[in-house]
Amino acid sequence: MSLRAENLTPGSSHNASLVSDLKRTQIVQYAGASGDYNPLHTDEVFATEVAGYPSVFAHGMLTMAMTGKMLTDYVGDGRLTQFGVRFTNQVWPGDDLEATAVLQSIEEHDGVKLANFEVTTTNQDGAVVLKGSAQARVD
Amino acid sequence: MNEEQQQAFEDLIYSYVGKVVCQRMPAKDAVNEPMIRHWAEAIGDNNPAYSDPQWAADSQRGKMIAPPAMMYSWGQEGFPVVAQGRTPDAQSELVERFNENGFFGTLGTNVKQEYFKEVGIGDTVYMEMVVDNISEQKATGRGIGYFFETLATFSDQHGDPIGTQRFRVLKFIPPAEQAAASSSDNDEALEVPTRIASPRGHDNKWWWDACDEGKVLIQRCKNCQTLRHPPRPMCGECQSMEWDSIESTLAGEVLSFTELHHPKIPGYQYPLVCAVIKLAEGTNLVANVVGCEPEAVHIGMQLQGKVEQIDAKTMLPQFYPA
C-alpha cells in the first residue's frame, strides 16, 4: 500500500500511538538491538547516582525509530528518503508517546513525487519530545 | 575560563573539525533476520517487510529488508565499548577535550538521516564518519556549551550509497560545575546583595519611578495646594482626590535620627544612619544621612540631598551635611 499524491492535501495529518507505559525492559532491548549500551539508558544506579538523573531514560534513537515506524506505516516501506529530528525533551520509563505527521507540500523532481512532512512526537503531558521533518516518495 | 584561555580552548576543539572518526569499514554482521527482528521488536514495529520471511519472499523485492532508521545500528560496537572502553578516535578525543575543560554534560540533540537505497538480508553496511562541525559557544537551557556534529556515511558492499546520518551532541557545563568554575576564576562575578526592593503599589509607584529618574517628588493637592508625603490618594485637609506633584530641592534639616547597628542586613552599608528629614518644602522624608561620621549627626543639622545609585537595582535620595 502506498500513498497517492492526488489523495494528499497539505495540512492533512496522520497520527499513531507509539507506546504506552514505556518499560525499562524495552529500553534495554533497544540497547541490545541497536548496539548502543550507554549506561544512561540501561543502568539505573549509574543514571541516578552517578549522572544525577531521576531514572534511566530512552535513547533518542528509540524515540526516533518509533516515530519512524509511524512514518513507514503511513507512507509504505522503502519510501522514506529523509528523516531529521530534534530531541526536545527526554523520554522516561512509564511515558505514553503519540506521533503526528502533517503534510507540508508535495514537490516533483524528474517525475518523482516527494511529500514533505512535519513530524511531532508528544508524551502523555502534551510535552513535545521530538520535532522534525521527513520526506517520502509517493505515487 | 578567561578570554585567552577560551581562545586557546576553541582553537584546540575547532582543530577537530574535518577529522576522520573512522575510515570506511564493514559492520561485523551482514544484514540478517535475527538482528532486524530484535530491533523491530524493540520499537514495536510488526511490519511484515521486516519480520515475515514468507511475506517478504512473496513481495516485489523477494527478500526481507531492514528498517531505514536501523542504518546506524549495523556499525555500532556494542557492549565491548562499555566493558573495555572505546578505542581512541577523533570523536572520543574531542569529547575528552570538552570533559577536561569542565564541559562534562552530554546530550544528543539532533539526528538527521537521509536514505538513498534499501538494504536487505545479505547486504553488508559499511560506515565512515567525520567530525563535521562545531558551533560557537552557546548559552543553552542546560548550561553553557558547544554543539558538535558528526557525519556518518553508509554504503553497501558494492560501494553504493545507502544513506547518511548527522548526529549533533551538546557538550555543556552542568549548572553545579558552572557556579564552581566562575567562583574560582572570577570572584567579582558573584552576585552582590542589593537593598530590600521598594514596594510599588497603585498609590506610590509614580513616586519610586521618579526616584529611578533621579527626582524626589512631593505630592500636592490640586484643590488646596497642600503638600503631602508619603504618597496617598486623598488630601488630609480638604479630602480632594485630585493631585499633582512638585520636585523637591532636597534641602532639609534633621528632625530626628537613629543609627542602626544590629542586626546587619545584607545589601546595606554600615555605619548606617536613618533620619526623619524636614524638607525645605515642608514635608518630611525618611532617608539616610551619609558623608560624615554618625557621631556628627544631630537634630537641626542642615542637609543637602541628592538621588544616587545605591546598588545594582536601587536609586535613593541620600543626604549630606550642607
TrEMBL record, chain A:
Superkingdom of this protein's organism: Bacteria
Occurrences of domain MaoC-like (ranges): 15-119
Pfam families per record: MaoC_dehydratas
Name of the protein this chain belongs to: Acyl dehydratase
Origin organism lineage: Bacteria, Pseudomonadati, Pseudomonadota, Gammaproteobacteria, Cellvibrionales
UniProtKB/TrEMBL annotation, chain B:
Domain FAS1-like dehydratase: 26-164
PANTHER family: BLR3430 PROTEIN
Pfam families, A to Z: FAS1_DH_region, OB_ChsH2_C, zf-ChsH2
Domain ChsH2 C-terminal OB-fold: 251-304
UniProt superkingdom: Bacteria
Species of provenance: Candidatus Litorirhabdus singularis
Protein name: DNA-binding protein
Segments crossing the lipid bilayer: none
Domain ChsH2 rubredoxin-like zinc ribbon: 208-240
CDD domains noted in UniProt: R_hydratase_like
